[in-house]
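Appendix B. One record, verbatim.
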Amino acid sequence: MVPSLNSTFSVPGAPPFNVVQPFAGVFYVRFPQRPGLLGEVDLAFHFLRFQEHYESPGFKGRVFSWAQYVAWYRQVRGYFSYPWDWAGYNFPGRMLEPFRSGAFDPLTRRERALLDALAQVRPGDYVIGTLDQDAGALQHELAHACFELDPLYRERVLAALAGGDYSRQAESLAEGEGYDPQVHLDEIQAHAVEGGELGPGARRSALIREAFDDSLDGLRRGPAGAIRRAYQDAVYEIREGSEALALRVGMPSAPLAALLRSLGVSQASLVTAHNPASRPQLGRANAAAQQRLEARLRAEGHALLLPGRGRDPSGSWPDEDSVLVPGMDVEGSLRLARDFGQHAVLALAADGVPRLAYVSALPEAPRN
C-alpha cells in the first residue's frame, strides 16, 4: 500500500504529479488518471528520455534528443505509439546524473519538473512511475526496484531462473518490446512477479513471487533516514597491492568488474565488524572485532581476503576497516553481518555496480 504523498509538483499546462517513498530507496512518481489517454501521454512525456537512456536497445547509455528518439521509434514500430505502449517506467537513480550535469540540455519543461522533483534521489536509489490506481503496473515496477536495490532478492531470482530456457522471452523482449539485452532477466522476473509463468509448471514463478514479498518486507524494515544516507554516501575502498579502488553505491565501476574477473569470481562482498549498530566504539574494540571477523572467514574457507575501508567523505564519521571476500554470496555475507551487529554489507557483482545489501533483507524466520 502506498503511503500518503510527501510532495506535489506541477508544470504549467500539465496536471500535478505526486512523489512518494513507499519503501526506503524507492521514489514513486504517481500521475493522476485523466480523460481519454491524456494521463498516459503526460506520464510518458515526463519519463521517456530518462527511461530510454537506461534500457533502450538503440539509446542505452547515450545522449540523444527527442527528435532522434521519435525518428528511431517510428522506424522500428512504423509510428510513434510510445505513450500507449508502456504502462510504467523505472530506472536507477544513477541515470539522473547526465541530466543533472546538463548533458541532455535543453530539457523540456516536463523533464525539468521531474528532475527537480527527484532532487533527493541518490545514485543507489530507484525511481518508478505509473498512473494512479494501476496496481498491476505498480507491482511490475516495484519488482524492478527490488531487483536493483536488494542484492539478496537478485540472488534468489537468479537461483530460481537457473537452468531454464528463456530464449523465447528474450527474443520477444529484444525484437518486439524494445529492451536492451542487459535488462532481459530483470524484465523476465518482473513479468513473473506480475503473474506470468516461466515455462512448464509454476515453481519458478512461485519462488520469485515469494522472494519479492520477502524483499518488500525487508525494504520496509530496513534502516532509513540518516543511517541509510550514511551508507549510501560513503566511499568504499578496496586495496590490491599498491592500488586502491574507490567505489560509490550505485555507480558502475569498470575496474571493479575487471578485478572480479581477475579473481575468477562473479560476486564478492565487502564486510566490516567496526562500530556495531552504527554506535562508535574505541579503536581497540573495533580492531579486535575485525580480527574475529577475519578469523571466522578464514575458518569458513575464505583464504583470500583483500583489505578495504569505508570512508565518510564529510569526515564526520571515522574510517572503518573492512575486508573484500571474493566469491561470497549475498545471503552468507548478510548472516555474517548480522552476527557482527552490522546494518549492511556492500554486495559486488559482475556488472561492476556496488549495491548495499541490508541485514533486514534476511527473512525473519527460516522457511521450511
